[in-house]
Design a protein that fits this description.
356 residues; alpha+beta; Helix Hairpins; Heat Shock Protein 90; 7-stranded mixed β-sheet; 11 helices; 59% helix
């Protein structure tokens, strides 16, 4: 392989090769014109020195200086003491092709970062807009009831208690919203510790079912386990936080489920280390375009119905944060007219000798 085929040519080596070629051609040309034997040697030496330093100066002065500026821009290197080390130890080892590849990689990384920043900015705008709306609804309700009471309805025994009751409900909704936001913030910052223990997941599901037994009875919705998943499975997790996950999922299924329908829980061994827990309903389902965003704060697939049903719009976001705080994943499967299934993984627990 010749020198010209070698990658990573430095300016000095490239200047040497160029000067050697030009000097040799000139020397051969002079050899044919002048019979004196020393003339080609003189021409060769003078041409080599002149070409070498001229070419080397041009590369250093114009081409590699520009490349150096490109690298300074890419790596944010200021013209300080680092410049000499950077110039002597990095640039001479880079070919033009490698510089081009580095610039392309840098451009791709910046493009990805810009896309992420745009997505985060859009998410921030939507979050602030949704937060303002969620706060505005109970606040305006409270303001309306209080203004009506102060305007004379306070003395009307036929409406004053009703208005105060509705005001109390709006305040409770506002308090739940603030509490949920506070909990998500603590989960994100890691201020809420995850205290793990081994327990049987089916027992925890039954406890959650019991809390919603009256609501389920009023809507004539059956709470049950899928056949074949009743066998007790031990999981290793924060029991209280996983119960909150189950409560949020069951409450969500009851809110949007069809009267006379079913809510079923399934628990499956995925492998030697994980258990998969799933809460399913046979409600109206969720359109496919909403599934990728269903765990975002305040995101509602059916906004008009969600406002009527109530809730803070943070239940699924809390589910996602709790599950991910355990180092696990949560997902959703849904089809319009068929129903929805929310599932999450948990680490398999260790059965103690006393329980064997």
């Amino acid at each position: 392989m010749s020198l010209l085929d070698t990658k990573n040519l430095s300016p000095r080596l490239l200047s040497f090769i160029t000067a050697l070629i030009v000097s040799s051609v000139n020397a051969l040309f002079i050899l044919f014109l002048h019979p004196l034997w020393y003339m080609p040697i003189v021409v060769f030496v003078l041409t080599f020195i002149t070409t070498y330093w001229l070419y080397y100066y041009t590369l250093q002065r114009f081409i590699y200086r520009k490349i150096k500026l490109i690298y300074k821009f890419i790596y944010q290197i200021k013209a300080t003491k680092k410049e000499e080390f950077f110039y002597n130890n990095i640039l001479p080892q880079k070919s033009i092709e490698e510089v081009s590849e580095d610039v392309q990689k840098w451009a791709m990384q910046r493009s990805i970062e810009i896309d992420m920043l745009k997505a985060n900015e859009q998410f921030r705008k939507e979050f602030l807009m949704n937060l303002a709306h969620e706060l505005r609804t109970p606040i305006f309700s409270i303001q309306g009831y209080v203004d009506t009471l102060l305007g004379g309805a306070l003395e009307d025994v036929s409406v004053n208690r009703k208005f105060l009751t509705n005001t109390s409900k709006s305040i409770d909704r506002l308090v739940r919203l603030v509490d949920d936001l506070d909990e998500i913030s603590k989960l994100e910052s890691g201020k809420i510790p995850i205290i793990q223990e081994s327990f049987i997941i089916q027992e925890l599901i039954r406890d959650a079912y019991e809390e919603f037994s009256l609501v389920a009875r009023d809507k004539n919705i059956a709470l049950s386990f899928k056949k074949g998943t009743e066998r007790p499975l031990q999981v290793y997790a924060d029991k209280q936080k996983i119960k909150q996950v189950l409560i949020n999922l069951i409450e969500n299924a009851l809110k949007y489920g069809t009267e006379g329908g079913n809510i079923t829980a399934g628990c499956y061994e995925m492998d030697d280390r994980h258990v998969y827990v799933e809460i399913s309903d046979d409600g109206p389902g969720i359109a496919e375009e909403h599934l990728s965003r269903i765990f975002e704060r305040f995101y509602r697939a059916d906004r008009s119905r969600s406002r009527t049903i109530g809730g803070t719009g943070l239940g699924l976001a809390i589910v996602k944060h709790i599950v991910e705080a355990h180092g696990q994943t949560v997902n959703v499967r849904s089809k319009i007219g068929v129903g929805s299934s929310f599932g999450f993984t948990l680490e398999k627990g260790h059965i103690s000798k006393s329980n064997q």
